Amino acid sequence: MAAGSPDISMHPRRPLSLQPLLRLGATLAPALVALALPLPLLSQTTPQPTMASVSDKGAQVYCFMRTSGNNHEVSWSAAYALIKRQSDSLFKTSPEHAAVMITEAVVRNPSAYPDCGRYLGALYGSEKPPLAPTSSSGPVPIQSGGTTRSDRYNY
User: Fold this and answer.
1) Which among 1, 109, 122, 144 has the fewest CB atoms less than 10 Å away?
2) In a domain, 94, yes or no
3) Element (H, E) at 51
């Protein structure tokens, strides 16, 4: 025998038994399967809203409120709040993008939003806020400008 090598004759080998490992595998397998199964099912049972459905909901809110007699500001605030909360984007949806989403939804399906086309211009600043009446009998000052696009969406 070479120096430094252990003498294996002193330690007899025991036969290797796989029974404990098989029992452990039989016990753990159902638990591992139970943990792995719900993951794909969970993602299928809770669908995330698509951008089309979010824009449809925003258009539905905006158009319903406008045809019910609400002004642009109130209708826009409600529709934009819905779009911001239901969008699954990592970033906040900008007001300009939300206006485009509503416009696309109405143009894509105009029969679902009857008479809403006439309100779409207000999303882009065509509708001016009403002027406050003045009680003075003097000359009326002429307002220069109006609401700009960046002012309209400054929320």
Assistant:
1) 144
2) yes
3) helix 51-67
